Amino acid sequence: MRFCSLFVVLQFRDDNMQTYPIVEIFHSIQGEGFHSGIPHVFIRFGNCNLRCEWCDTNFLSFEEKSIDSIVEQVLSYGCDRVIFTGGEPALQDLSSIGKRLKSHGLTLSIETNGTIPIDSVIDWICVSPKDQLYPNVPIKQRTGDELKVVYCGQDMSVYDNLKIGFTHHFIQPCYIDDDTVEQNGKGFQLVEKIVKESPGWRLSLQTHKWMGIL
């Protein structure tokens, strides 16, 4: 019993000393996908195993933060929903930080490219595959709650097998910050047409960008 208690104490100390690459932590409204319109605390991790041309995050600029400081900041917002995003959050040890956050009654979601299996500590898995840019990088997380495809002109039939493992299916226009309203509008119109012609898929829009919020 004493050995077990000592092990637990040492493990807790190790977790406290662990750090994570954090780009930012902020409280905002989820602007896209199934939980659109619901407040969340976003934990944006640094680093990614892919380099998508439309990515709007500088995931190479981050600060190493301890679990204690991360949990303290998350709890300060008084919000019971947390989203792990990035970069690619699955590159991190999500078990340790996830267990600490869930000990406070928080619900955990993740936004991932699906190339790394997701730890079971996560409550809601949203996979946004990037195989339209990286066809030779396999999707390893093939089950989850939400499949969110960024449409760049790819053949949607490539997701016929993948979508079987997910409950909710979304198509999202590829929004380019530097493009004009007219250029992005053409992409929106095309995605609208695809959704109408593709039973089982729903439209997802990045409403937070329209609102001018994070």
Can you offer a commentary on this structure?
By secondary structure, the protein is α/β, with parallel strands linked by helices. The chain has helices spanning 2-17, 67-76, 94-102, 181-197, 207-211, and strands spanning 19-29, 39-45, 63-66, 81-85, 107-112, 124-127, 144-151, 166-173, 202-203. The chain has a nine-stranded mixed sheet with strand order 3-1-2-4-5-6-7-8-9. It is globular, with a radius of gyration of 18 Å. Residues 6-10 have low confidence and may be disordered.
Short account of what is shown:
The protein has 214 residues and is α/β, with parallel strands linked by helices.
Task: Map the helices and strands.
Layout: H1 2-17, E1 19-29, E2 39-45, E3 63-66, H2 67-76, E4 81-85, H3 94-102, E5 107-112, E6 124-127, E7 144-151, E8 166-173, H4 181-197, E9 202-203, H5 207-211
Parallel strand pairs: 2-4, 4-5, 5-6, 6-7, 7-8, 8-9
Antiparallel strand pairs: 1-2, 1-3
Using brief descriptors, characterize the structure shown.
9 strands, 9-stranded mixed beta sheet, TIM Barrel, 5 helices, alpha/beta, single chain
